[in-house]
Design a protein that fits this description.
six-stranded mixed β-sheet; 11 helices; 15% strand
Amino acid sequence: MTADEIIVDDAGGIVTVTINRPAMKNAISVTMFETMRDTFRSITARQEARCVVLTGTHDFAAGADLTRGGSGTRRQRAHTLYSMRVIHDAVMALHEIPVPVIAKVRGVAVGAGMSLVLACDMAVASSNARFAAIFARRGLSLDCGASWLLPRLVGIQKAKEIALLADMFGADEAKAIGLVNRVVPDGELDAAVDELALRLSRGPTIALSMTKRLLNNAFTSSLAEALEAEAMAQAVNSSTHDTTEGLLAFVEKRDASFKGR
């Protein structure tokens, strides 16, 4: 992997992670997944990070690199389970980033690329974006968390259709079924994501991270567990500068100025 195949840019607490292998339509090698894993973990550890944008150069990502060279070392090629664990560590690290994560999607997002979109909190797609759970066409089953994430977004029946037929579909259908939040003309994609990321980065970061965790756990917890988790989250929030500022802004009838702490 060259040093610039995963590009990280931090501007005012908005961290943009770009998959940069356009000659391969951003097909992601095991080594690139390792770099992504480490990048996502480092973002989680940084208090200054307030929003993340995951994107690709030209295309979002044409899935995992299935060529011999894309599998990394000889040891990795010999042990598929080892490689899959490396890849899935990256997906888990992405899913566990506490601040909001936006997928900015143009071009193809297929296979593991589509799974990465699913693992983000929001997705904004160019009108030229195309999606597919391509695995079945390669003699493979779902991976990178798609079997868990996809039915939660689109429902079990639609998830089966997408996974079993492995058809390509466009951005408008992706929005209609709930896979992406917004579709904009390609020329407006960057500005639309910049505006959304800026809005999220100016929010109450700790409270947003609490809300994200609560929603991520919504399908695997009971109501009693959810209520207790909500109570604990509010206890955490009540000790923050941002909650004090939010309440003061309400009393003073002005917009709150959150600092992310």
